[in-house]
Design goal:
The chain is mostly beta strands and 137 residues long. The chain is built from one helix and ten strands, in the order αββββββββββ. The protein folds into two domains: 16-74, OB fold (Dihydrolipoamide Acetyltransferase, E2P) (Beta Barrel); 88-131, no CATH class. It has one helix spanning 2-6, and strands at 16-23, 27-31, 35-40, 56-62, 68-74, 88-91, 97-100, 106-109, 126-127, 130-131. A hairpin with a 5-residue loop joins β4 (56-62) and β5 (68-74). The longest helix is centred in the N-terminal third of the chain and has 5 residues, at 2-6. The N and C termini lie far apart (92 Å).
Length: 137
């Protein structure tokens, strides 16, 4: 019985922390309680993202003792658009967005458009609210 009083429970540790990126890339540096470098960046399937320096990110800790860490996401935009359950709203630098809606429509907005290769559209294409008509110029 005296032995059970001698064993102390392990101190609680956080399984995740909010950090600020200091090094950008596929392996990032993040300051939480101290700076950690070469952390891998994970995102949902099919989504590739590299946080910019100064981005507030979620650092997930795992492994025995929490020594294995990775960056799992970032804080959303200051003004988060209202989206319906199941919809996807992707945003990047500037005002570039891709919005996949429940009704099957897709909104793509960008501050600069450049197309290399081929863009394939199935369904009705509307540009600035008007149906697109191919110009045979």
């Amino acid at each position: 019985m005296w032995l059970s009083r001698q064993i102390k429970p392990a101190a609680a540790t956080a399984d995740a922390d909010l950090g600020i990126t200091t090094i950008s890339g596929q392996k990032v540096g993040v300051v939480t309680r101290g700076e950690v470098r070469d952390l891998p960046v994970y995102g949902p399937g099919g989504y590739l993202w590299t946080p910019a320096n100064g981005t507030a990110v979620l650092v997930v800790k795992g492994g025995p003792g929490g020594e294995e860490q990775c960056v799992a996401g970032a804080r959303p935009l200051e003004e988060v658009p209202k989206i319906e359950p199941g919809e996807v709203y992707l945003y990047g630098p500037g005002e570039n967005t891709v919005y996949l809606k429940q009704d099957g429509s897709v909104e793509i907005k960008g501050s600069r458009v450049s197309v290399t290769g081929e863009l394939s559209v199935t369904g009705q294409l509307t540009v600035n609210g008007q149906p697109y008509a191919l110009c045979n110029c």
